[in-house]
Amino acid sequence: MASKTENQKAWLFVLPVVLLVAFNALIPLMTVVNYSVQETFGDNVFFWEGVKWYEQVLNSERFHDSLLRQLAFTGTILIIEIPLGIAIALTMPRKGPWVPVCLVLMALPLLIPWNVVGAMWNIFALPDIGLLGRTINALGIEYNFTQQPVAAWMTTVLMDVWHWTSLVVLLAYAGLCAIPDAYYQAAKIDGAGSWAVFRYIQLPKMKRVLTIAILLRFMDSFMIYTEPFVLTGGGPGNTTTFLSIDLVKVALGQFDLGPAAAMSLIYFLIVLLVCWVFYTLMMRNEEV
Questions:
Q1: E strand or H helix that includes residue 181
Q2: Is 286 buried (19+), middle (13-18) or exposed (0-12) by CB count in 10 A?
Q3: pLDDT tens profile 118-152
């Protein structure tokens, strides 16, 4: 019997896209690398600095504080959105006319541009005219996210939960719909309860989509910029000044291109490293 030969010509169709993406990614990256090891005072004159800017960023207390705030925010987001998204997905119908209605309602927050989300929540949470702010103050709780650090932090977290939990819901729902009915029938015959079905059938079958959800939400929340910048501007003080906001302040506010370039590369490597660790651990558990 003749062996079947594989046709690799399909790669020719995606090659132009790969080259275009590589070009658009490599040119800016090499520019940032160039700035991170040099100093310039204008007129396109550069002076070699080596790893000076990297040492300055890594030894900077400002960078450490921004990184801790970013990690705390991302950790809070994942702890809230992943279980909440799974819980909502479990309550959604699998069949019937309400399925498209639920899917559309879940997708609506994802369709709103990031700057509009920040503006919406800025108005919504204002203590004097915003529905959320006035309601909380009417209950006797002093609330002003423009002046209170805790209120600003909680409002930013609540805004992100409202905006992005739908992504987790849709991914978890897709994983639930992919589970064959035979598993549920076998569990019913064995007399398994709801918790046992979730633990031994639904959760294991959702591992892959939940892995994608965790990675996407980690990357998105770790690189968040537009929403908190429009909502709080990084304040009050530095309460919501995450790494991305601090990076823009260094690059555009202070125009320190060398430290900003080094900081952006360190930022990029942190995201890659954590994503790789997440993915490796989850795939290892999957194999086990």
A1: helix 181-189
A2: exposed
A3: 999 999 999 888 899 999 999 989 999 989 999 99
Q: Fold for domain 71-250+272-287?
A: MetI-like fold (1.10.3720)
Distance CA 254, CA 243 (A): 15
Quote the pLDDT of residue 53: 87
DSSP string, 202-269: IHHHTHHHHHHHHHHHHHHHHT--HHHHHHTTT-STTTT--HHHHHHIIIIIS--HHHHHHHHHHHHH
- Number of Cβ within a 10 Å radius of residue 116: 13
| Residue 175, token pair as written in the block | 């994983």
**Domain spans in the chain, listed from the N-terminal domain onward:** 71-250+272-287
Return d(Cα 106, Cα 134) in angstroms, integer. 27
Peptide bond into 113 cis (omega under 30): no
pTM (2 d.p.): 0.85
